[in-house]
Amino acid sequence: PVAITYYASQGGAAKVVSLAWRLLYILIPSTLVMFVVFFFNIEKEYRHTFYSTERGKDLTIKQFRESSEDATKANYSFQTSKHHWMSIEEDVRSWVKLNWNRWEEEKQKWLDENMRAKIPLEWIPTNKTKNK
Predict the structure, then answer these.
(1) Is 129 exposed, middle or buried (0-12, 13-18, 19+ CB in 10 A)?
(2) Is the pTM of this model over 0.70?
(3) What's the rounded mean pLDDT across residues 50-74?
């Protein structure tokens, strides 16, 4: 509505303004109706999976701490914003230092060049690997 009003006040074409208002009056209510219909068609036991009050940062920390798989931990630490895991940075750093040699030996599939580039160099324990 603000953009339409601004466009109209700047001398925008009356046809365009009229069309924009009509679309607005059609699209917003129809989207709301479709969302309500969708929500009521979801089986009740699955409705909770469509919304959450948990912040992304809290989910990242929880998934890192609760996961037993390295690939999942890496995904929730290095594939998300650093701001999500800054509060557990020492945990992430010690996890990397503790497991780096094993990952190198086992040639973990998830530890590709993209993932390696996201790990801070000072966390990598060996000079040989830092140079890669």
Answers:
(1) middle
(2) no
(3) 90
